Amino acid sequence: MNTDELTMLLARIQVLDNRQVDQLTIEAWSPLLAHVPYPDAVEAVNGHFSESTDYLLPAHITARVRAKRRAELPSTMSEEAPPSCADGAHRWLDDGTCLYCTDRRN
């Protein structure tokens, strides 16, 4: 997600929970959501606010996006991270995240 998309996403969030969004907010959230495609982030935000009263954090968005990706996996695949992840042999997705664990490429 680029800065313009993040700005639109934070504007949506601001309308929903009345938070104050400024340049510092954008700069703080930017590296945390850079790997998340904008449409997926919007879907995660909508899902969060339709199901939760918790104050939305970037981690809520990434968790929902990851859960959606895992739900789309073939049912024969395990949802548990394989031992290979502990050994550094990740299965990287196009966005730089590991399919099985919470690691990201730099």
Q: Quick recap of the structure?
A:
The protein is 55% helix and 0% strand.
Write a structural description.
The model has no long low-confidence stretch (mean pLDDT 88). The longest helix has 15 residues, at 3-17. The protein contains 5 helices and no strands. The chain folds into 2 domains: 3-72; 77-106, no CATH class. Helix 1 (3-17) packs across helix 2 (23-33) and helix 3 (38-51) crosses helix 4 (58-71). The protein has helices at residues 3-17, 23-33, 38-51, 58-71, 83-86. The protein is globular, with a radius of gyration of 15 Å. The chain starts with a helix and ends in a 20-residue tail after the last helix. With 106 residues, it is mainly alpha-helical. 55% of the residues lie in helices and 0% in strands.
Q: Could you outline the blueprint of secondary structure elements for this entry?
A:
Elements (H helix, E strand, L loop, with lengths): L2 H15 L5 H11 L4 H14 L6 H14 L11 H4 L20
Helix pairs in contact: 1-2, 1-3, 3-4
